[in-house]
Protein 1
Amino acid sequence: MPYMVQKQVMTHQLQGEIIPPGEKRVMVPTISWTPEMSVDVALIDEQHKKLIEIINTLNSAIEENAATPVLDQVFDELTEYTRKHFSTEEELLVRAEYPQTVVHKEEHDGFIYQLIAFRNDFENGSEVVSTKIVEFLYGWLVKHILGSDKAYCASLHEKGIR
Ligand SMILES: [Fe+2]
Ligand SMILES: [Fe+2]
């Protein structure tokens, strides 16, 4: 009964017990960039793909029960690349005089704030928190791309930004 085995492992995790090194954790399903997520601006699509790739790497590192320095490194890469992506996007929004620029930037700032808060939780070494982090990251990013990011497409195109 594979399902029962899976369920037992999940319960084990939620109790916050430490999984011995070398044993795998239950992984959050990875995601892939899909054409539906395209904002029709080549640079931004590339950055979104890279962001998803980094979160997938973090997810794998958590599943593999990687050592803290490895997780720290991936988390640093994610924070750094997220900042880079947000500033690229914000520059384009300003250039296009996009009316929702301020609100959009506030969403970005909120996400960065969350990343920093998660990093602190992460340092405490709770695996339950780690799994929740990945779920949050996937959820936020996909929702933001499909909603707020896609909403600026037309404004950017009007200014010839593709
Ligand atoms: Fe955005
Ligand atoms: Fe974006």
Protein 2
Amino acid sequence: MAVPALEAQNLTLAWGELAVADGISVHVGAGELVCIVGRSGCGKTTLFHALAGLEKPASGKVLLHGEDITGVPGRVSYMLQKDLLLPSRSILDNAALPLILRGVGRDEARAKARGFFPTFGLEGTEDLWPAQLSGGMRQRAALLRTYLMDNDVVLLDEPFSALDAITRVELRRWFAGMVHELGLSALVITHDIDEALDLGSRVYVLDGMPRQGRISRIVGETAVVPDGADRARRELAELLGMA
Ligand SMILES: Nc1ncnc2c1ncn2[C@@H]1O[C@H](COP(=O)(O)OP(=O)(O)OP(=O)(O)O)[C@@H](O)[C@H]1O
Ligand SMILES: [Mg+2]
């Protein structure tokens, strides 16, 4: 098998005394878009923190193209569950922020970010404030900012959940096309099964209730094949105990 773009091997995750998840092994192939579903509080965001190197797992490894990056931040791009744009900066400056944080000069950072505005459907919004954009546009700006973190692997924590149903479907399809066009590999958290099936080529199910003493594990994985959405939906519902 080709070396995955991102791989978690046997991660154990905890917050102090709270054991959250154990035996977590997931991978994303190069160019692949994979989803993770699971009920609220099961540990999806906690897993992303470990994959992004923001927290060191209690045990296990995170590999990026085979390289051990366990506990190393900045190697994968990460869009937080609440990815708020800075309200007092223009959309252009918000998008350019990761470049500036990396030490790129302001003019160069702005020029580079500006070049991607048409690709992200944001042309003409450069000098607006976040409050002047629609929810979908704000999400696209946040996605552009994440993209400009400049890694080929992106982690997105419920990127579309705050949007209305129509915008949400439009934006996620646009995003799937973008992942392909820009040559990215992506892991996306959602608790919407239909969204997972629409986006991912595979869907992992994380299940457990850490606060009730039931540690979370990956309880299954469903491949999404053309015309196989109904079967995959049944599989996922069963894995989540909703069937
Ligand atoms: N910073 C923290 N300190 C202590 N416990 C935390 C912290 N963040 C999360 N937890 C706990 O870890 C468990 C998993 O939380 P997490 O945020 O990963 O869930 P989630 O699956 O992302 O949920 P949601 O779908 O609601 O976003 C929860 O029991 C939560 O209370
Ligand atoms: Mg979360």
